[in-house]
Amino acid sequence: MKIYELHNQIKRLSDEKKLKILLVLGGCVLFLIIILLVFGFDTTPLKEKPKIGFIILGDIRQSGWNASHYNGIKSACDEFDVELLVRDKVPDNSGQCPIAVEELIAEGAHIIFLVSFDYSLEVRPLMEKYPNIAFIDVSTQTSAKNLTHCFAKMYEGRYLSGVLAGLRTKTNVIGYVAAMPNSEVNRGISAFTLGVQRINPNAKVVVAWTGDWENPEKEKMNAERLISEVGADVLTYHQDDSAVGDVADSLGIDFIGYNALLKGYSEHYLTSIICNWELFYQDILQRYLKGELSSIRNHWVGIQQGIISLSDYSVLIDEDTKRAIEEARNDLVNGKLIFSDDIYDNEGKLRCSKNKVISDMELLKNINWLIRGVEVLE
């Protein structure tokens, strides 16, 4: 049939028949759309990104504890396409941490990292109030069904740096500026001292307390006292900043950094104890996203998992020293336990017997003593 004849036939149709044809055609189109919607497209709503809450004591831009943790968790969140919600500059025991937790939960966080030693004590009532929120802390101050203790075995890095300090000292006096005598700090000082004693049993470690995680003026004063009053010729520290390094470097004294790669110092900056926080947080987030975290109460990782190391050495470090540190590292990789066999504290009390070990749980919670070979500067 020619086109013009078809056109004439359509023109001769009544309006009623035209309407019927349009309705049929419209129904076919509608049916096709429904088929496409049901079978041709995924109409499932996109899942919202998981949200992670992160609370920390200091400024996330400040080199040391604060920046290293933030950079680590930020990289891990980017890796797993997770949204990171941050509250920094939240002082311990100030009442601000519970407020930050409430804010993060209101913003949709389903897992919250408490990245300071005393936070979990402040937040304990909220753990019961929000049983479906997963909490992660870096201490063992308290416990709850929805709380997991996660930390790196920084004391293993302390042990290796103790080997270095024991070989570098000429006065056999090594200074250690430290925040406060809690379990975390005490086990680090004691592991460091065991590393010193592994290589130099005649050396002693003298500790000067500041009473604060970050107090640069007091840290500098203590560093100066350790050098001038007791003759320390190597310094290290457990603080959130590197004020001790400033003093040591200005006086030509060797020092070992902590939790940060430092810049702008001389060759007296020997190395730093480093944690790969990105790998640490990736491991935790992966377990959380798989639904495995709720079954873990304590997550304790270190050199064997590739998370703890020493940074590049100063040019002052000779090959013999490097070999001695590497031998100690290999021992740890192969399963050597630092806190084992006969261990006495600095008051003469036996803390571990021959062929025994101090358990991880004990190391996490109950090291309220310092090892023999440690003195405290009054």
Strand order of the largest sheet: 12-10-9-8-6-7-15
The proportion of residues in beta strands is 15-25%
The main pleated sheet reads as: 7 strands, mixed
Shape: globular
**Helix fraction by DSSP (H/I, runs of at least 4):** 40-55%
Q: What is the domain tally?
A: 2
Q: How many β strands by DSSP?
A: 15
What is the average per-residue confidence, as pLDDT, rounded to a whole number? 89
CATH superfamily of the largest domain: Response regulator
Per CATH, the class of the largest domain reads: Alpha Beta
Distance between the termini: 112 Å
Architecture of the largest domain in CATH?
Answer: 3-Layer(aba) Sandwich
Question: How many separate helices?
Answer: 12
| N-to-C series of helices and strands | HHEHEHEHEEHEHEHEHEEHEEHEEHE
Class from secondary-structure proportions: alpha/beta
Report the uncertain regions: 1-7, 31-46
Rg? 30 Å
The CATH topology of the largest domain: Rossmann fold
Structure commentary:
The structure is a single chain. This protein is α/β, with parallel strands linked by helices. The protein has two domains: 51-152, Response regulator (Rossmann fold, 3-Layer(aba) Sandwich); 154-274 and 305-376, Response regulator (Rossmann fold, 3-Layer(aba) Sandwich), CATH 3.40.50.2300. Helix content is 43%, strand content 19%. It contains twelve helices and 15 strands. The strands form three sheets. It has a seven-stranded mixed β-sheet, with helices on both faces. Helix 3 links the parallel strand 1 and strand 2. The radius of gyration is 30 Å and the shape is globular. Mean pLDDT is 89; it is low at 1-7 and 31-46.
